[in-house]
Amino acid sequence: MSKKVWTDVDDYIVSSLFEADPILEAVLAANRDQGLPAIDVSPAQGKLLSLLVRISGARKVLEIGTLGGYSTIWMARGLPVGGKIVTLELEPHHAKVAHSNLERAGVPDKVELRIGPALQSLETLAAENAGPFDLIFIDADKPNNPNYLSWAMRLSRPGTVIICDNVIRDGTVLNDDGRDAYVEGARGAFSFIGGDKRLDGTAIQTVGAKGYDGFAIAIIE
Is the peptide bond before 132 cis (omega within 30 degrees of 0)? Predict the structure, then answer.
């Protein structure tokens, strides 16, 4: 099968199961217009994140990697009244676009956007006793996956759901030559989750508009 087939199936999923959403379409258009990289989750993946927030009963969500806020909005929509997302973004320009998008989507009251290197922001959150979070979504610079997972453990509780994006990488996760830092980051996520007995996890391979990739999903026991 080809990426065109995968994309066509994604379009079918969206047209069959989702109502038209001009706000989210405008968010993606704003991201393009502002020169942000086209690495947002797909609509189907965004809806999955929203459903996982609802299924887990999460009230406090931590997102590592905001970009333009597309996934943030999906998760915010899954929160109950009084729920909150803390989202971390390195680039001030991305954060500015995200802030505008959050306003556009009507969810700024549910989101706290922090700007700066994520590892520093995570250290600050720990110092502030901001946890525990109920669901943590990791979608930032892939080489730091093990570091982000380590902080996620510190900012969580038994029952916290941890989701790590882009862990299959067109199947290159099988490469163990150490030449690609992004592949090593994906492998590091598997090693961390598989090696920590406090975590019970799996991974889901995905195909669609974003190509061939996948999520690692774990729960803290």
Answer: yes
Its pTM stands at 0.97
SS3 for 5? helix
CB distance 139 to 113 below 8 Å: no
Judge contact between 113 and 95, C-beta under 8 A. yes
> pLDDT tens-digit profile of 150-164?
999 999 999 999 999
Query: What is the helix (H) or strand (E) element at residue 50, kind and residue range?
Result: helix 43-56
Superfamily of domain 3-220: Vaccinia Virus protein VP39 (3.40.50.150)
Strand order in the sheet with 135-138: 111-115, 84-89, 60-64, 135-138, 161-165, 211-220, 199-208
Give tens-digit pLDDT for 28-54.
Answer: 999 999 999 999 999 999 999 999 999
